[in-house]
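Recap for those who missed Tuesday's class. We walked through two folding examples back to back. For each one, the amino acid string is listed first and its predicted C-alpha cells come directly after. Nothing is annotated here on purpose, so try labeling regions yourself before you check the end of the notes.
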Amino acid sequence: MKKTILTLLASGSMIIATKAQTIQEGINHLYADRFQSAVNTFQKLLAVNPNNIEATYWLGQTYFDMDDNNMAKQVYEKALTANGNAPLLLVGMGHYNLVSGKANEARQNFETALSMSKDKKGKDNPDVLNAIGRAHTDAKMGDYKYAEQILRTASELSPKNTDIWLNLGNAIRKARPGEAGRDAYEAYHKTLEINPNFAYAYVRLAKLFETQRNWDLVLENLNKAVSVDPNFSLAYYELFFYYFVRSDFPNSEKYFNKYVGSRPNEDKWEHDYLNAQLCYIKKDYDCAITKGEAVRAQMGTKVKPRVLRGLAYAYLEKKDFAKAKAADDEFFAKEKDGFVPADYKRKAEIAAGSGVPCEELYGIYLAGAAVDTVLQTKLDYMDDAAKDFNKRGCKKQEADMRLAIFNTRNKPNPLGLINIGILYTQADQLAKADSIFAAYTALQPDSIYGHYWRGKVNGTLDTTFKVEPYVSNMISGYTKALDIAQTDKVRYKSLGTTSSLALIGYYNNIKLDKEAALIPALKGLELDTSNDQLKKIVDYLRTKTPAKQQKQTTPKNSPQAGTIPKSNTSATKTGGKR
C-alpha cells in the first residue's frame, strides 16, 4: 500500500514537471514575441485539460501582448464560469479591467484574489502578487509604485522566481522613470544570477541601457541574449532596429533574416512589415509604401500601429503630406501608450509641411517632450525642437522652447535667461522679455546684463515715455547698468556707454534737467574717453550748467540720489541712440 502511494506521488510529480515544462515553453514563446506559437502551446494544454488555470492565465497574457484585449477578456470570462474561485483568473480579469480604464473593478478583482490565495498563516501568494504587479505595470492606468511594492514582497516570498524579478525591474522603471536605473538593473541582473541563460533579461537590460544611450552595453546585452538562446526572436528584432537606425543595411538585413528564421509559425504580416522597413533604410520609399500598404490592406482594422508609423515616415519622405497625415493620425488613434518623442517630431514635420501655424507645432513638440522620462534625452529632443523653430522662423516658439529647456534642467545657468530674453525681443514679445530679464536680475543682481536689457526693453515698450512702470524700469535698468560698467571699464564699455546715452536723452530732452544729464554723460566718458559724441554732449551740458552745479556729484533729480524722477516722459534727441 505504501509502495502504491509512493508510486502515485512519483507519477504526480512527473505530471507536474511535464506540465510546468510545457507551460514554460509557452512562456518562452511569449517572451520571445512568438505570440502565435505561445497561443498554440497554451491552447494545446487546454485541449487536454480545459481547467488548467495556469495555461488559461498565460493564454490571456499572450493576448494582452498581442494587443487583443477583447480576446483576453473572453478567455478569462469563460474560465471564471467554471473556476470562479481561481485567484489567477480573477487577477487576469482585473488586468483586463485595468487596461480598460475600470480601476475600481480591477481593484475589487485583485483584493478578492489576494484574500482567496492567502495561506493558513495569512501570508500572500507570491504568484498572485506577481500577476497583480504585472497587470499594474502593463496598464496605462496602473499604479506603478504599488506594483513595485508588491513585487518586492513577492520576491521576498519567492526569491528564485525569475519572472517576479523581471516584472520588478519593469515596475521600477515605470514607477521612478529616469532616476531608478540602478535599481532596475539590479532586479534584471538578479534573474541572471538565478538563470544565466534567461535571454529575455538580457533584452530588458539592453532596453535599460538604450535609455541611457550607452550603445556599447545595448549591443553587448543583445548579443548575449542570442548567444544563450540562438532562437530568441525578440533579440534579433532589437538587433535589426539597432542597425536599422544607424543605416547599416547589411547588418539590419542580416538580423531581419535571423528574426524571420526564428519564428516560422508566426503571422507573415510582421515579416512583410520589416521588409518595408528595409526598403525605407535603402531610401526606396516607393517600395516601403507598396509593402506597407499591402500589410495595411491585409490586416484591415487590426493593422498594428507600427505599420502605420512606417507608412507615415515613408509618405513624409515623399513629401506627400496628406497621406502622411492620414497614416499618422491613424497611428496616434490606435497606439495606446507606446509613444516616443520621435513620434511627435514626425507629427510636427508633417504638420509643418501641411502649413499649420508655429503655435500648433509648439504644442506637438511639447507633447513629445512629456513622454520622454530620461532627462538628457528629453533635453536633447527639446533642443532639436528649438533649432527647428529657428529654421522655420518661429521666433516666439523658439524662445518658449528655450525657456522650457531652462526650466527642465536640474541646475540651469542663469545667464541662459539673457539669451532667452533676447529671443523674446526678436519675436516682439517685449513684456515677456522684460519678465525674463527681471527674473535674471533677481538671480544675478550684480550682473550688468539683466539691468541693461531691462532698460532697453522698457524703453521700447513705452515709446512715449509716459507710462509706468516702463519709465521707472527703463531709468533704473540703465542707471544700474552704468554703475556696474564702472567696475570693469574695458569689458562693459559698450553696454555702459549705450546706457549713458539713453539716460542723457531722458534727462536732457524729457526732464529738461541738464544737471541730471551731465552725471551719466561724465560716467559714459569715463568708460570711453575717445567717444566724440559723448565729448560734445559733455561740453554742451557744461555750457548750460553753472560751474557751482557741475561740482555736485549727485544732483537732486539724478537716479544716483536714489530717487527716480516722477515724470513719465523721456526722449532721445540730444542723447543719441538708446
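Example two. Treat it independently of the first, because the proteins are unrelated.
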Amino acid sequence: MNMLKRLLFPVLLLLLSAIAILPLFSQGFFPIHDDTQIARVFEMNKSLHDGLFPVRFVADLGYGYGYPIFSFYAPLAYYVGALFMSLGLTAMTATKTMIGLGVLLAGMTMYFLARQFMGEKSAVVAGLLYVYAPYHAVNFFVRGAVGELWAYAFIPLAFLGIWKLAQKPSWRHVGLCAIGFAGVIVSHNLTALIVTPFLLAGAGMLMLTSRQHSGKRQAVFLVLGIGLALLVSSWYWLPAIGEMQYTNVVSQAGGGSAYADHFVCINQLWSSPWGFGGSTSGCLDGLSFQIGKLHILLGLIGLVVGLGLQKLRKQRFVVLFTAFCLLFSVLMTLEMSKPVWDGLPFMKYVQFPWRYLSLVVFFLSLLGGLALSGWENIFKGNRASLVRLGGVVAVIVFLLLLSSKNFHPKFLYDTYRDETDPKIIVWTISRISDEYLPKAFKKPDTEVAAATQRIGRETTVNAQVISDKTGEKVIQLESERGGKLALNLAYFPAWQFLLDSQPLTASVSDGMYYFILPKGSHTLQARFMQTPLEKAANTVSVISVVVLILGIILERKRRKA
C-alpha cells in the first residue's frame, strides 16, 4: 500500500506530461528547424552496428564523405534513439520515441528535485510547469533541438545531486550528481556551458550555509561530485575541445548565429506571438520567447510563499538563491547583458542569448511549485488539504488549457522523405549541417558532385571496394604501372591506412585523401581509430566510472559492518 501511495504522484505526473507528446503518435513527421534528427539516429545506429564505440564518425553525412559529428555534437540522445532502433523500431519511430522520452524525463527529474522543498502535490505542479513551459515547446515542435531537450531533462538531476551532497555527503549522492551533470554535458555542450556557473555557485552557497556536516567533508564530496561528472564525461568533451581545429565547427560562432543579433526584447518574455520561424535581430522574431504568464504569476507567488513559509525558514536561502539565479538568467537573455557576453570570449559559442530561457524556466518552475505550499498557514485541518487539492487541480487545468496552443506541430507531412535513403542523407540532409567537415573541404555545389562512390574521380588505378563499413574501408587495387587513388573520405586524424598490412602515408588536398600507389595487386585498408587524445579521454572516463562504482560499494560495506 505504501508503495502504491509513493507511486501515485509520479504516475500522475507521467500521465499528465504524456499529453504534451501525443502528436508524436500521429502518423508521419512534422517540420522543424534542425530537420536532421531521423538521419542522425539512423547513422548512429549504423555506426554502432559497424562496431564503433564510442561513436564519433558517421559514414554518409558530409555529402557522403563522412565526418566525426559525434565527437562534437553531444551524442546521448542519439544513443537512446539507436537503442530503440536496435529493438526493432524504424528510424522515424525511434526518433519520435527518443524525443518523447526526453520530454517525460524532464518532468520527472523536476518532480524529484522539487519534492525536497515542498509536498508531493506541489512537486507535481513544479514538474508540469517545467514540462509545459513555452520554451520547452519551442525546442520540441519548432526548433527540433533534441540535444537541448535532453539537457533540459538533466538540469534538475544535477541540482538534486548538489543538494543531496550538501545534506548528506555520500558516494551514492556523488553518483547522483555525476550522472546529472554528466548527462547535461553529453546531451548538449552549450547548455552545460551556461549551467556550470550556476551549479558551482549552488555548491558554494550550500557549503557556506549548511551546518549539518563538517565543512571539510561536505566540500570534499561536492568537489567529488562535480569533478567526477567532468571526468566521466571527458570521453566526449575533451576531444570536442581538443580536436575542433580539424573541422569547421568554429564557423558556427559567427555569421547569422552571432549573439549580438539574438538578444530578447523584454516585452517578448511576457507576450510573444507563437510562430515557427527563426530568430532575427530586433523584436520581430519568427518564434516565441515568452516565459508563460501562468509561470510568472505562480513564480512570484511562490517567491513570497517561500520566503514567508514557516516550515521553510531553514531553506529560505535556497529560495533567495533560486530567485537570484532566475533574475540573472533573465538578464542574460537581454541586450543589457552584452558587456558580459563581450567580456567572455567563450560565450560566442552559445550563439543565442535566449538559450538561457532553459534556466529561466527551471528556476521559475521551482518557485511556481512553492506557490501552493502555504495553504495550511491560511486554512486549518481538512479544509487546508481540500483547498490545496483544489488549487493544484485548478492550476493543472489552466496550465494544460493555456499550453495546448503551443504543444503541437505546424503541420504533419502527408508523405515524408525517407531519411534512411543514402541519397537523401548524402545530399538533402548533409546540406543542413556540414560544419563538421574539414576547413579546407570544398563542398559540392550540386547533388551530382556529392560522393555516391567511395572511389574518387581522379583515380587512375583499377580499384574495387571490398568492404565499406563506417569505420573500416577495404579496397582491392590493380595497376600495371602504378598510379593515383582518390578516396572520397573527409580528412580527420583518426584515419589510419595500411597497404598490404603495412602503414601507408596519405596525402591530403582540399580536405580529402589521395595516394600514390606502386604497380601490382594491393589491398588498401582505411581504419577509423581513436586518436591519442580520444584514447586518453576514454581511459579517464572508464577509470572514473570504476572509482565511482567502487566508492559506492565500499561505502555500503562499511555501513553494513
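Answers for example two:
The chain has three domains: 2-144+248-403, 145-247+532-561, 462-529.
The CA atoms of residues 140 and 222 lie 33 Å apart.
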